[in-house]
């Protein structure tokens, strides 16, 4: 949004009553000059030294000059001017306070200075003489005053709507050309109105009037400030009411919050109590767990020691068992070897007897054959029986061994007896080993007597009642 400006114009005369378009020449001049005769409550006289002037500086001197110049003038009939004649004019360059908030003091001062210069030039172009300019820095908003008179004393005709329209059009345009963001002023466009219907002209005129009222230009400084103060008071009242409403809502909210705080405090106490109980339970569980872990560690250590000790005893028992089994096995092997040697000796003796019987048989057969040959002619069967008897007596064996078939049977019997002797050797060894193993197991039981729990360990190790040995 650009800067909004106002350029109210006052026609000044001696002793005139202050109105929207008129004013007392001396009062207005002395208010603008360095006398600063003003009833404005916002006037800060400590800053009046910052004001800038061109032309006249004293308002009193300017008013005297206007009166002296007016006294020299006569009307068309040669008569002196009336006391109510317009002797001067005043134009105020009034920037809007909100529009200059974004500027610093130096920028605001330069903007007002440029505004005064452009306004004075427009007035001079209209045939008016500028006698004094004043840039006031001692009020809330920096503004400018342009004061002068009409050398021809025809100000009533020159200070008319045409001048107002020119100011409203040219001043914003020229300031924009200088780089300022200035909004347009309300302008009554007579050319545009000439092309309108009566109804449109009435509407347009009413719009311009409302626009001027909204802009509030042409007011006195005090009236403008009073209106602004009333607006501020109205706004402040509305803000106070809103603040009171907000305060009531805040108090209600605060009461609700206090109630909620009490509820939350009670809830927190309950939660803290529960948490304390949970902490106690957790601490008790932690203590119990630590004790249990300690017991587990002790049990694991005892089990390890017991396992190591059992391992030692088991190794000792296994060593003793292996030694006992080795001793008994060696004794059994020795006995079996002795028995085997004895059986072999018996078999050899039997073989020797077989050889002798065979030789005797062959000799007896020859003899029997001779006897048979001698007697066969008369009694062969008797001779044969005698031969058998003779051989039986000689060999002391059964009669069926006489013929070769009997000899083969005899050999088979002998071989069978030898084989039985050989087969009997493992069985004898097994029986002897069982006897010696039982004796070794008995020795082991005696050795492990007095060791607690060794029975269960051996039971789990071997899975038999006799732990791999006969009782």
Q: Descriptors for this entry?
A:
about 475 residues, about 10% strand, alpha+beta, seven-stranded mixed sheet, 7 strands, rod-shaped, BirA Bifunctional Protein, domain 2, about 65% helix
Describe the structure.
- Among the domains are: 5-185, 2-Layer Sandwich (BirA Bifunctional Protein, domain 2); 319-462, no CATH class.
- By secondary structure, it is α+β, with helices and mostly antiparallel strands.
- The chain contains 11 helices and 7 strands.
- The longest helix is centred in the middle third of the chain and has 155 residues, at 221-375.
Distance between the termini: 120 Å
| N-to-C SSE string, H for helix and E for strand | EEEHEHEHEEHHHHHHHH
CATH topology of one domain: BirA Bifunctional Protein, domain 2
**What does the main sheet amount to?**
7 strands, mixed
Name of the level-1 CATH class of one domain? Alpha Beta
Mean pLDDT: 77
**Principal-axes shape call:** rod-shaped
Second-tier CATH architecture of one domain = 2-Layer Sandwich
| Structure classification | alpha+beta
Low-confidence stretches: 374-380, 394-402, 424-428, 464-471
Strand content: 5-15%
Give the strand tally: 7
Determine Rg (CA atoms, Å): 77 Å
The proportion of residues forming helix, as a percent range, comes to: 55-70%
Number of helices: 11
């Amino acid at each position: 949004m650009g800067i909004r400006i106002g350029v109210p114009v006052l026609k000044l005369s001696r002793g005139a009553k202050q109105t929207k378009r008129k004013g007392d020449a001396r009062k207005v001049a002395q208010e603008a000059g360095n006398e600063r005769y003003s009833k404005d409550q916002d006037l800060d006289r400590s800053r009046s030294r910052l004001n800038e002037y061109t032309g006249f500086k004293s308002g009193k001197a300017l008013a005297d000059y206007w009166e002296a110049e007016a006294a020299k003038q006569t009307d068309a009939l040669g008569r002196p001017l009336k006391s109510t004649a317009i002797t001067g004019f005043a134009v105020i360059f009034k920037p809007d306070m909100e529009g200059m908030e974004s500027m610093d003091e130096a920028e605001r001062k330069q903007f007002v200075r440029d505004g005064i210069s452009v306004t004075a030039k427009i007035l001079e172009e209209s045939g008016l003489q500028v006698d004094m300019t004043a840039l006031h820095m001692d009020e809330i908003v920096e503004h400018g005053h342009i004061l002068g008179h009409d050398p021809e004393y025809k100000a009533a005709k020159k200070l008319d709507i045409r001048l107002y329209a020119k100011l409203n059009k040219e001043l914003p345009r020229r300031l924009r050309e200088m780089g300022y963001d200035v909004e347009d002023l309300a302008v009554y466009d007579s050319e545009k109105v000439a092309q309108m219907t009566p109804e449109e002209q009435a509407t347009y005129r009413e719009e311009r009037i409302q626009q001027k009222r909204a802009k509030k230009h042409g007011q006195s400084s005090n009236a403008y400030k009073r209106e602004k103060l009333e607006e501020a008071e109205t706004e402040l009242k509305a803000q106070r009411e809103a603040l009171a409403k907000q305060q009531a809502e805040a108090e209600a909210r605060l009461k609700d919050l206090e109630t909620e705080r009490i509820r939350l405090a009670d809830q927190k106490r309950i939660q803290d109590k529960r948490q304390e109980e949970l902490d106690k339970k957790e601490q008790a569980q932690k203590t119990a767990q630590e004790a249990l872990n300690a017991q587990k560690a002790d049990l694991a250590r005892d089990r390890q020691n017991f396992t190591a000790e059992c391992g030692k005893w088991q190794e000792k028992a296994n060593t003793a068992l292996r030694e006992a089994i080795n001793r008994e096995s060696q004794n059994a092997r020795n006995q079996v070897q002795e028995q085997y040697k004895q059986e072999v000796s018996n078999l050899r003796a039997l073989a020797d007897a077989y050889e002798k019987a065979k030789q005797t048989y062959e000799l007896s057969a020859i003899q029997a054959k001779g006897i048979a040959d001698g007697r066969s002619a008369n009694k062969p069967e008797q001779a044969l029986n005698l031969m058998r008897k003779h051989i039986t007596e000689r060999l002391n064996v059964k009669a069926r061994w006489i013929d070769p078939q009997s000899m083969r049977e005899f050999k088979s019997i002998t071989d069978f007896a030898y084989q039985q002797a050989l087969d009997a050797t493992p069985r004898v060894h097994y029986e002897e080993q069982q006897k010696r193993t039982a004796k070794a197991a008995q020795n082991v039981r005696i050795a492990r007597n007095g060791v607690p729990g060794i029975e269960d360990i051996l039971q789990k190790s071997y899975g038999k009642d006799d732990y791999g040995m006969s009782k």
